[in-house]
## 1
Amino acid sequence: MAETKQKKNNGDYTAEDITVLKGLEAVRRRPAMYIGDVSVRGLHHLVYEVVDNAIDEALAGYCRLISVKINENGSVTVIDDGRGIPTGIHKEEGRSALEVVMTVLHAGGKFDKNTYKVSGGLHGVGVSVVNALSEWLEVEVRRDGEVFFQKYEKGDPVAPVKVIGKMAKNEKGGTKITFLPDNTIFKNRSYKFETLAERLRELAFLNKEVTLEISDLRPKQEQTATFHFDGGLVEFVKYIDSTRPSIMKKLVYARGSGIDDGGRAVEVEVAFQYNDQYSENVFSYVNNIHTHEGGTHLVGFRTALTRTLNTYGYKNNLVKEGKITLSGDDFREGLTAILSIKVPEPQFEGQTKTKLGNSEVKSIVESVVSQELATWLDNNPGDAKRIIEKSLRAAEAREAARKARDLTRRKNALDGGGLPGKLSDCSINDPEHCELYFVEGDSAGGSAKQGRDRRFQAILPLKGKILNVEKARLHKILENEEVRNIFTAIGAGVGDEFNPEKVRYGKIILMCDADVDGSHIRTLLLTLFFRYMKPLIDLGHVYIAQPPLYKLKKGKQELYAFDDEERDEIIKRLKGDKTPVAADPNEEQVVAEDGVVVKPGGIIISRFKGLGEMNPEQLWATTMNPDTRTILQVGIENAGEADRTFSILMGDEVQPRREFIEKNAKYVRNLDV
């Protein structure tokens, strides 16, 4: 990788100004180019890169057990029982192939299709990037009867590869990698067990022959989980739909293959069922990579589904000619499906590997699904009839939604021609620089309107809790005035008519109280975005404001704390005390009726119970000023898990919601209940 340096002396630009970054230096200089970012998401991506290498061994038929450990010191160990990274001398490099794989970008066994017929990590940069971004990394390889070892620091080998022992007589081969992320690159090096477990669970569903284990060995966080699913995609669908009643007695499962343009086999596997809800939940994968933007494989599946069900409906007189026309949208209402394909040479659009572009894959998927589904429908007439009847009801609701759209458009409610009366818009109209705050309550809305920067910040107060869209069809949703105001303010349409290019604001910020009601309102809004404006989340437009919980005052000093830990640190700082606050058990405090706490030394602590308690200046300084505020960007790491979570939180089933709350209560910061 080469960089150019900007010269100050009259713009001279010569050969001397070309900087060549050798080895893995380019990765350390620009880590976000390789792992997306250096936040918590990028931190976890390091583990995924190592695990994906092990999964590639599983796809090749050599690995059956993958173990992930979060160690006491914060490092992570990934162990697989595959063939082990080759350790012999690489002819061109003149050093161990293990060292080449660990220290050279684009080095690996993924480029010739003899070693790995199918692979998720196609670029060959995964493990070398992890090495480059680690304070240290140790690799242990078991193969050819011996145990090989090498250690690296910030991507550079400490010593050559050496043999440290012999393998036991019947011991399997494999690779063990332990690494500690570099704290000069990752400010937060704390791994989340649940985040890693979700990805391992997903991989276990997609690769039913593999067992994946995860252990957290950190003090007071000890826990383990093992994932293995003999049913594969069938169990995956049931897991996602576990809180939604199915309308079918038997789930659809299809598997087959076809030949691509290069004469190589493309394997297709799909499982799906219909539930009694209204949203479509289809998750597609290529070589274990979640293609959240879809691609040719998803187009082939949808085409086959629509054509085959339509043909069956007319052939069996379940759909009457001339009465109603069923569309693809009708056949996808209440559908939960997992589509997984294995492609030897996938062509992904963009560097994010989120959309498949291989044109021949469409016809392969379409052929497999059409044949298998037609047979299934003939063998399961009761379920087939229920699917067609549900699709007919969806068509009727679609027509009602069309009429509702037409009515609201005539009232200028969805085309941006008539903005909501409660919306205080900003003066500039460049979406990239505009922000829209959804604010809980008229009181907080009033403070926000007074405290905002009118040039680029718009305010839309919300009257309490909006409609729970998880339990309603679109035509009912469009009848709700509060939801219509949200659609109108954003200005990009709704559902299948949503157009991201028409979004009127680059940042859409949810500003709710830090209490139970505020959390509920925020969840209702996120459900609305996830179900009917999902590109808002995918494109990074949605944020959550972080108003402070406390105001601390000593004399003329006023400081704000966003959680209990920060509050205690500020108290410590104001006291000039070098010991933790909790170390003073005899300290007295007075709690007044209005919730104000007075500490010795004249420190006054106020607990904000709602945004409305802040005056405009406080709201601007703590929550709305781009220079001082903290806002959290909403993203989707695991779409299947996100869908299941929304179904648990906002669906009809009470017991799954109770279990979710009990399990996750430890993550909720101190709320007024």
## 2
Amino acid sequence: MSDATIEVYETEGRRFPPLPEFAEASLANDRSLYDEADADLETFWARQARELLTWDQDFGQVLDWQLPFAKWFIGGKLNVSYNCLDRHVEAGRGDKVAYHWEGEPGDTRTITYADLLDEVSRFANVLKGMGLEQGDRIAIYMPMIPELAIAMLACTRIGVAHSVIFGGFSPDAIVDRCDDASARMIITADAGFRRGAPSALKVNVDAALDAGAATVENVIVVNRCDTPVEMTDGRDHWWHEVVAAASPDCPPAPLDSEHLLYLLYTSGTTAKPKGIMHTTGGYLTQVAFTHKYVFDLKPETDVYWCAADIGWVTGHSYIVYGPLVNGCTSVMYEGTPDTPRESDRVGDDRSQWSKDRLWDIIERYGVTQLYTAPTAIRTFMKWGTAEVQRHDLSTLRVLGTVGEPINPEAWMWYHEHIGAGQTPIVDTWWQTETGGHMITPMPGVTTTKPGSACHTIPGVTAELVDDDGKVVTNGGGYLTISQPWPSMLRGIWGDPQRFQETYWSRFPGRYFAGDGARLDDDGYLWLLGRVDDVMNVSGHRISTAEIESGLVDHPAVAEAAVVGASDDTTGQAIVGYVILRGGNDASAELGEEIRQHVATKLGPIARPRSVFIVPDLPKTRSGKIMRRLLRDVAEGRGLGDTTTLADESVVEAIRAGAAAGDEN
């Protein structure tokens, strides 16, 4: 893959053995599950399915693999809602807290499993009362409030598939997804609180329905922020009114293991988003397994927090379905980590507001597992440790990372400042398409390396291949999955040919979604990001992830993004954008020092042509860096679509700096 040497990883060779306090971890500090899975993959997953889930009807066949189409646990019937709720209540755990929910202004709700079952049953009856039946699809476009999880679980109770649309998306995105899925209903809210103010949602639904989404018959609206909205007679209904009139008695429907559970749309190489299909039994088995073992779960005492948004697959698997099926207590938070409670806000200048909301929540609820994104961790690094030190984080037992590859420096900061130098970190790799974790350390079992996702989980087989599809046992390659796994996507909604071409055609017989990785001498996997994020500089293929790791290796740099810009001499030139850690001042001298640092770490070919020191990076509301916009700035083009940006002013500030020659 890349000709550049990844010295930044090799110099971070510090290893972290299993810690003594985790000797009694769920995996019993041995490799028995790995050995079992290696001996017989199907028997291994069949045991997990039967031990972790309750089935209305047992399955007769474990796997039907007609490449690229898989069916798992054939003939089995179960209900997701029953597995997440009823069985815990029936076992006498109805009073156990399912969610500690905290709204951004500071309002809170404590929701038990019995409470959740009541609300889910009522809303399932609302859906049935409006004519929804097994196999129908609905769209959910909501803020991070309990009603979002309730709506999802109500769908599963009666066999309706949901399509959750991230609350930061535009009306056009709503139209695209509703049209593609033929959604019969949209569930939304008037608005959701974000960064200290209501962010409107219902108005976007109205705009979408004015422009398209002709299959939508009803809209149900949660009054979250008490903002004025227009309600269309006969179509729009207030959540609180329809739920109050509904019965709490709604028996869960036994559904086939391969019944469509949800669609989740993800971007592709064309303008049309891909509707990723996940079904019931296989998906629930793998998310239950991974949530239990990857986070070393002790459901009787743990308070788990996945600090993501349910609008993404992370929230589906590790805020809703995984924690609830395992009977766990979770934290759900509505807002951004730099927005204090309304009672704690001093003045109107946001820059002066405290940035300790995350640590405050951990301390108040006694969080034991924190699962967040490398982007967030690098932001915390930029903020410094003063506000971290104000809080007692000693309840934390496991730290997790999800999303893009984490660089070793951020890993170490997370371990030392949030984990007090002793808390295990599970650095997980997986995708919307995989449904659940695929590559990750296991607490109490895996000796970790900072920045490495380490190894596949039991029951998953990943291999690196070269351009010709030959297996790579050391060095860089394309990350492929060579055997089916239970939570794998079942296809792209309405487009099996696109499914085949997108994921199975590059390397026949292998799943490949576009990520590159590297195997070191010890057999550890280092994720390098998407291979389409590779620059060709004077004939050398260099991953943007490698350069970004070189930039953040400099002690003054908190976060970095790299793009390739057209260059008449080299074909592409490397352009870097960096945010400084607190206490460092931007200067031409520092910028040049950072450029040379990359050359020292990775070789002269990796030295950026330009390094821009910027106050922030353009990110979506989910925290993803929009490198496309940085590429537009680097090449002097007009900006494309910026509707999903959390703060559109960031790009303008970067562009103004570039125009002024503020580079090094």
## 3
Amino acid sequence: MFRASHYFILLIISLVSMSVFADAAAISHRFRAGQSALEVYKDKKGWQPLFIKGVNIGAAKPGSFPGEMAITQTEYSRWFRYIAKMNANTIRVYTTQSPVFYQAFYDYNRLNPAKPLYLFQGVWINEDDIAALKDPYAANEKIKTDFIADTKALIDIIHGNATIPVKPGHAGGQYTSDVSKYVIGWILGIEWDPYWVTNTNNLHPDKTNFEGKFIFTDHASPFEVFLAEVADAVVVYESERYSEQRLLSFTNWLTTDMLSHPNEPLAGEDMVTVNIEHLNADRTFLPGLFASYHIYPYYPDFMSYQHDYQEFHDVDGKINSYKAYLRDLHKQHTMPVLVAEFGIPASRGMAHINSNTGFNQGNVTEQQQGDMDARMLKDMHDEGYAGGLVFAWQDEWFKRTWNTVDFDLPDQRPFWSNAQTNEQAFGLLSFDPGIKDICRIDGSVSDWRGSKPIFQGNGVKLHAKSDEKYVYLMAEVPGFDFEKDTLLIPIDTIANQGSSTLGNTAMTFSRDADFLISLHGKDDSRIKVEAYYDAFYFINAIKHDYIEQNPDYELTNTGLFVPMQLTLSRKLFLPEDQLQLPFTSYETGKLRYGDGNPTHPAFNSLTDFAYRQHKFEIRIPWQLLNVMDPSTKQLMANLRSNNGIVAEAANAFYFGAAIVKPESTPQLVGSGEFNWNPWTMPTYHERLKRSYGILQKAFAKYK
């Protein structure tokens, strides 16, 4: 009797196993996880390693927020051609795109079967729900349920089998383009908020194991169990509905990695781990799992202060904390690891630095951007990563940055280009202002033909114009000695404040000046702000106590003009070193000499002014004039009387000019009026940055 029962049980197990493997055999997959690389199945060649080299594509262009889905099919088609020509093989998107995206993607690959573009599809999580609920299982598991539902909808979308109701802030419509054969896999979720992860773990201490059909966990954290539940639901749905499976991962970043960073100054950046290695794939999940990280060289701060990273040298003998981190992280994984985001912004403004390498978040030229991105990709390749995806394909005017966020109007960001906000300039494709360039800062004044001066006096003729990014000036200065003389340009932007004199000199201004441009040679030129109107000082000394207060800054019309600063870091305490680091900033008002013409070999994208044959060309970002939104003509109101930064309507600006020679200083500087028209929608034109060509060559090295 016992033997018969035992035989019956074995028979049932055998039949179930046969059924499972029969089901698995019926499921197709074109991509899979190898030992360290991702692999693609190619006819006649079988499974081949695929080194990922590509870009992340956002959903916005100038004049729109991402949720408006304003990018057209024609634009996507053109971009896909550019991306392929760059020798990229993959693109990534973060959330559901409009139907025209998938149609353009399908059309590109249909027309280019020998060199297809592949896709990583992301699924976003509602960050408002995270902030409100703080738990994926709260409110009847709303976050988890929505996450799974959105992913299932995207499975239908990539198979060209979905109709999504159109609602504000979301993509929708009829999806008929089956792009599934080109979709490598899923990168689900967002950069995890460590406090949300910690709260989830604390609320559900017993939720450590999950047994799904394809995904299971063993001694996972509650948050990792939540991810496993989502992953299994995704694989089950596509397996059952389409008999297909594809690679799967979740977004992660340095903040929630599994490494210890003892010298990280911010507790939240090293408080909790999200480890995809705690998710296991049943052998019936044929493609497998891979790890996916956003890895930037300048943040979190341990990239600058971790001791072993500070001491790590690469084969060129240079300190390379980025490569050191890549090596440490890769050791933690038994599955392929993809760097799903990396990049450097070619912006004028800067928000973080890497004190070891100079791979900083901004204040980087397009040439440097390309060189740094290419170097990071090489480090990934050399350390055995599955590849890397540059952030980002296109510039994004709607973005904000922590150290400039107080100085603009959130609802108006997409309508102008803020050179001070580094987050707007990660792209390899630039959206330059205007239907065409109205001024290229190269010393040639051909851009100014037909222009009439707004001011003439003190031996100077001054011209002005503007676009969606800059105010441009051209000064004719006959007899000017570039090495010895100084060109001063006082600017009156706001009524009832400003200085009528320049410090202790005999110079006076016909209109009270709020800003002062001083051009003196290649290395000693800058724009200064009257101390009373210095927003940097107001935020950091008056509203907060990050820097010391100065009573000389509290009165207007003192003649005191100060360098314009941008915050880099507030005070930090290094726990391992037991060292307090001071508040840091840099002089963002310093003006860079160079050639700003993109068509010239010596092009420097950070050029602020040029000089040739007794003529200056200058461009000043709107934000350096305390303009909060040039499209609606809003600038910062009086900081003290409003006890904060608020906007008021701008009137005309007034510019003067004078040449100061070693032996003489003009005593009275007049002024001329400059005004501009507001706009509803910005004009712009596309330009491939210098970094594009550099990465084109870099990508070609990796087959």
